[in-house]
């Protein structure tokens, strides 16, 4: 597993409206993704009527989230 840089790059491409969705999925499968626990379960949030699992590409991003 890499440092998450390739995943972040693929995410930026998709946000910009370019890039290959399959490449993004591939990088996500290869990446270490940190998912916080809350009350014994995965930390989730609802957006647009869909419940999402929150995940972070590195410890610094997770720490910033935890501070908020």
Automatic annotation (TrEMBL):
Organism of provenance: Streptomyces parvus
Name used for this protein in its record: SseB family protein
Tree of life domain: Bacteria
């Amino acid at each position: 597993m890499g440092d998450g840089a390739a995943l972040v790059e693929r995410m930026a491409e998709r946000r910009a409206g370019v890039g290959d969705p399959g490449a993004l999925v591939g990088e996500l499968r290869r990446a270490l993704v940190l998912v916080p626990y809350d009350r014994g379960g995965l930390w989730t949030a609802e957006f647009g009527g869909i419940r999402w699992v929150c995940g972070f590409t590195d410890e610094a991003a997770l720490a910033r989230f935890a501070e908020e």
